[in-house]
UniProtKB/TrEMBL annotation:
Pfam families, A to Z: Porin_4
Occurrences of domain Porin (ranges): 7-346
Gene3D superfamilies tied to this protein: Porin
Annotated GO MF terms: porin activity
Source organism of this protein record: Caballeronia terrestris
Name of the featured protein: Porin
Predominant localisation class: membrane
Length: 378
């Protein structure tokens, strides 16, 4: 009897140790709101919205200690619309994230799957869009630089370094998976960031070849591509500085398109899809942003973005202002009020109208949207 009890004790100890060496975490965020828009296709609208700031999602994140400072890691993250329960990211089950890999406390991590590009990873946190302080509706026109994660990169291999005294870097390559043409719908990117106390600086570069085209629908970026183009190059840099309860930042990005045929309607969340006939286009974005904590629970944030475009022989110019105030009811739940104003000029006969990201386009050159919402994290 004593031997049996001893054996059970040993098994329990081993099981406890094994459990301590591996973990799986369920997490998520739900963003639901009511949005008023002054002009959507020529009429004002009051609608229930999901993800006006942060896309609603749930996910599983896990790690297993393999010994010697090495871990197996994975993340599966699903995006959905809280207003109707539908899957996001063009009905993908894990459209936001789906990767597995190895992480070393000596060499960094290597992961494989569907992942964010390096511009999003390193430069994204310095912009207001893509964060809790501005999110979806604060994106630059058409989310042309993808800082709001309109698309992810499938078939990708990513490396991310350790933190070397505040300096981090990484890169990603997304395979075309095309046996006949290695470069048809592939992607690659690199990025780096440096943090020194209150100072943060970052830069990144992304290139897509034949994204959004029907040439290879199983490639790196296909049905969720913002643009249909033979080549897309996006690069940028940013800086932010925190002083006391405030933080201010500046972000510059530029996206260049070659052999472009269209701007997708579904990727940016708008219905402002356009056919491009000139073959080339360019978007240059200048964003100034800031945020301030009035109290530990109450924050204010805002951004102004000027975008200089070149589309089909015209040079549209966008001016956009976004403001948000959020109040935390607890560590996991907050309420927010957000407003966005966008105005576009010099559009010629291009068909470009104002279109706040995530909303149907205006019939005119201006659009105003205001959202009151609730966010819950788990």
């Amino acid at each position: 009897m004593k031997k049996s009890l001893l054996a059970l004790g040993v098994l329990g100890t081993v099981a406890g140790a094994a459990h301590a060496q591996s973990s799986v975490t369920l997490y998520g965020l739900i963003d639901a709101g009511l949005t008023y828009t002054n002009n959507q296709g020529g009429a004002h609208n009051f609608q229930a919205t999901s993800g006006a700031v942060n896309g609603s999602r749930w996910g599983l994140r896990g790690a297993e200690d393999l010994g010697g400072g090495l871990k197996a890691i994975f993340t599966l993250e699903n995006g959905f619309n809280i207003t109707n329960g539908k899957l996001g990211q063009n009905s993908r089950e894990f459209g936001r994230h789906a990767f597995v890999g190895l992480s070393s406390d000596r060499a960094g991590s290597v992961t494989l799957g569907r992942q964010y590009d390096s511009v999003v990873d390193y430069l994204g946190p310095l912009a207001l869009t893509g964060t809790q302080y501005g999110g979806t509706q604060a994106a630059h026109p058409f989310d042309n630089d993808n800082l709001d994660n309109s698309f992810r990169v499938s078939n990708s291999v990513k490396y991310q370094s350790l933190n070397y005294g505040g300096f981090k870097f990484g890169g990603l390559y997304g395979f075309s998976n095309d046996a006949g043409d290695f470069a048809t719908n592939r992607a690659y990117s690199v990025g780096a960031s440096y943090n020194y106390g209150p100072l943060n600086v970052a830069a990144g570069y992304l290139q897509l070849n034949n994204s959004g085209a029907t040439l290879n629908s199983s490639g790196a970026v296909s049905d969720d591509a913002t643009f249909t183009a033979g080549r897309q190059r996006t690069f940028g840099a940013g800086i932010s500085y925190a002083f006391g309860a405030a933080q201010a930042g500046f972000v510059f990005t530029q996206t260049r398109l070659d052999d472009a045929t269209g701007i997708g309607a579904s990727a940016s969340g708008t219905t402002n899809g356009l056919v491009l006939t000139d073959g080339s286009a360019r978007f240059t974005n200048y964003e100034v942003n800031g945020r301030y904590s009035l109290t530990p629970a109450w924050t204010l944030s805002g951004a102004y973005t000027f975008t200089d475009g070149r589309i089909d022989g015209v040079s549209p110019k966008w001016n956009q202002v976004s403001l948000q105030t959020a109040y935390a009811l607890s560590k996991r739940t907050d309420v927010y009020l957000q407003g966005v104003y966008q105005h576009v000029s010099d559009t010629g006969d291009s068909g470009v109208t104002a279109a706040v990201n995530g909303l149907s386009a205006s019939s005119s050159n201006s659009q105003v949207a205001a959202t009151v919402g609730l966010r819950h994290r788990f």
